[in-house]
C-alpha cells in the first residue's frame, strides 16, 4: 500500500505540531539506469545472509479481526529467499498474477481483490522483505533494487510462468524495475496503481512542493538516524488513532478505513526490525526513476491513478509523466479513478476491478 509510515509533511506543518498524520509516507524518485551489474552493486548477497531472522508463525494472534482477514493470515506460506523467510499467498486457477503491496502494507491489503481476481486467475501476493510477515533483518539497508530482485526470483522459483505484475505505490515501482530487467520470460504484463516515483520523496526535486520542504526532509533524515529519536517517532506513528488519521488522509473513500485496515498496518510494525525497515526506507536512496525505466518495457501496461492521491498527485511530476504515456506507448492504457486516493485497490476496489479484469482478459 503506499500507506503506512512514510514522511511527507505538508509545508505548513512543523515538528511541534501534534498532528502526527504528517508522518505519512510517500515514495518518489530520481533517474538512474539499471543493469545486472547495478543489481550486484546495490544488493550484497553476503549482507542478506548476515542477519537471518528467526522463523515466525504467521497465524493470526490478534483478537477482533474479521474472518476474512484471519483467513488471509492463515492461508499464507513461507518461501526462503537468500536466507530470509518471505511470506506469500496463492489462490485460484488460471493465468498467474502477482500482487505487490506498497510501503508499510502487506498481503492483507489486497483483501478486497484476492477473492474476485482468483475466480479467473492464479493470484499470488507477497510480503516484501521488511514488511508484513516476512523477515525484517536488523540493520538491513533496503533498496528498490533489492525488492525488484526478490520479485524476479519469486517468479522464477515459485510461480515458474510468465506473470502479470500488479503493484501499488512503492510496490508498483519495484514491479517497474523488475519488468525492465526481465528478458520477457517472467513478466507478461504490468499493472500500476498510483506508482511511486521513488522509495522516498527526496528525488522528486522538480516538484515545487518537494523543493519547499526539502530542508525539512534532510532534517528528518538526520533525526531518524538518531536511534532514540527514530524510535520515539515510530512508536507515536503506529498508535492506532494516529494510523487511522494517516489512512483517512490517504484514502478518498473514508469508509474504507476500517479496523481491519488499521490492524493490517499496525500489526507488522510491532515486529523486531520494523523500525529499521522504516528508517532505511525513509532515509535510503530513492532508487531508479520510473521515468527512466518505462521506455524499456515492452509488455502491455495498465495504469490506474486515484485523482485524490496526496502522495503522488496526478498533477505532480510522476503523475504528469504517466498521464503523457498513452500518446507515446501504444500498449499502455491509463485510467483516472475519481474520488480515489493513493491505494485504489482497497480504497475503491469496484473501480479498479472494472478496468483491471477486462484488461487481464486481453493479456491471457
List the helices and strands and how they pair.
Elements: H1 36-42, H2 45-48, H3 67-75, E1 77-81, E2 84-91, E3 96-100, H4 114-117, E4 122-126, H5 144-159, E5 163-168, H6 170-181, E6 187-193, H7 208-224, H8 227-237, H9 240-250, H10 259-269, H11 274-283, H12 290-293, E7 301-306, H13 317-324, E8 332-337, H14 344-347, H15 349-363
Parallel strand pairs: 3-4, 3-5, 5-6, 6-7, 7-8
Antiparallel strand pairs: 1-2, 2-4
Helix pairs in contact: 5-6, 9-10
Sum this structure up briefly.
The model is unreliable at 1-61 (pLDDT under 50). The chain contains 15 helices and eight strands.
How does this model look, in words?
It is a single chain. With 364 residues, this protein is of the alpha/beta class. The protein has one domain: Rossmann fold (3-Layer(aba) Sandwich). Helix content is 39%, strand content 13%. It is built from 15 helices and 8 strands. The protein has an 8-stranded mixed beta sheet, with helices on both faces. Helix 6 (170-181) links the parallel strand 5 (163-168) and strand 6 (187-193). Helix 5 (144-159) packs across helix 6. The radius of gyration is 18 Å and the shape is globular. Mean pLDDT is 83; it is low at 1-61.
Amino acid at each position: 500500500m503506499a500507506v503506512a509510515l512514510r514522511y511527507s509533511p505538508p509545508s505548513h506543518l512543523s515538528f511541534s505540531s501534534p498532528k502526527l498524520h504528517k508522518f505519512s509516507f510517500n515514495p518518489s524518485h530520481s533517474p538512474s539506469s539499471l543493469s545486472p551489474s547495478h543489481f550486484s552493486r546495490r544488493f550484497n548477497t553476503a549482507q542478506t545472509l548476515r542477519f537471518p531472522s528467526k522463523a515466525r508463525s504467521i497465524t493470526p494472534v490478534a483478537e477482533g479481526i474479521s474472518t476474512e482477514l484471519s483467513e488471509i493470515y492463515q492461508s499464507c506460506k513461507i518461501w526462503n529467499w537468500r536466507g530470509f523467510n518471505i511470506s506469500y499467498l496463492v489462490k485460484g486457477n488460471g493465468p498467474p498474477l502477482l500482487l505487490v503491496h506498497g510501503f508499510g502494507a502487506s498481503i492483507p491489503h489486497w483483501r478486497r481483490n484476492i477473492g474476485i481476481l482468483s475466480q479467473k486467475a492464479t493470484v499470488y501476493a507477497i510480503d516484501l522483505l521488511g514488511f508484513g510477515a516476512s523477515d525484517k533483518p536488523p540493520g538491513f539497508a533496503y533498496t528498490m533494487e533489492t525488492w525488484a530482485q526478490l520479485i524476479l526470483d519469486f517468479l522464477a522459483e515459485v510461480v515458474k510462468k510468465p506473470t502479470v505484475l500488479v503493484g501499488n505505490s512503492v510496490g508498483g515501482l519495484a514491479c517497474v524495475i523488475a519488468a525492465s530487467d526481465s528478458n520477457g520470460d517472467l513478466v507478461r504484463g504490468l499493472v500500476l496503481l498510483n506508482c511511486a516515483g521513488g522509495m522516498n520523496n527526496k528525488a522528486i526535486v522538480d516538484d515545487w512542493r518537494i523543493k519547499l520542504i526539502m530542508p525539512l526532509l534532510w532534517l528528518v533524515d538526520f533525526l531518524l538516524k538518531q536511534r532514540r529519536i527514530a524510535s520515539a517517532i515510530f512508536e507515536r506513528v503506529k498508535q492506532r488513532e494516529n494510523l487511522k488519521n494517516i489512512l483517512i488522509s490517504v484514502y478518498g473513500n473514508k469508509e474504507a478505513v476500517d479496523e481491519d485496515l488499521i490492524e493490517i498496518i499496525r500489526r507488522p510494525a510491532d515486529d523486531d526490525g520494523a523500525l529499521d525497515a522504516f528508517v532505511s526506507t525513509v532515509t535510503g536512496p530513492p532508487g531508479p526513476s520510473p521515468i527512466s525505466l518505462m521506455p524499456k518495457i515492452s509488455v502491455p501496461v495498465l495504469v490506474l491513478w486515484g485523482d485524490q492521491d496526496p502522495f503522488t498527485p496526478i498533477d505532480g511530476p510522476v503523475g504528469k509523466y504517466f498521464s503523457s504515456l498513452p500518446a507515446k506507448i501504444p500498449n499502455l492504457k491509463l485510467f483516472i479513478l475519481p474520488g480515489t486516493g493513493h491505494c485504489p485497490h482497497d480504497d475503491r476496489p469496484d473501480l479498479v476491478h472494472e478496468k483491471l479484469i477486462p484488461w487481464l482478459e486481453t493479456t491471457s
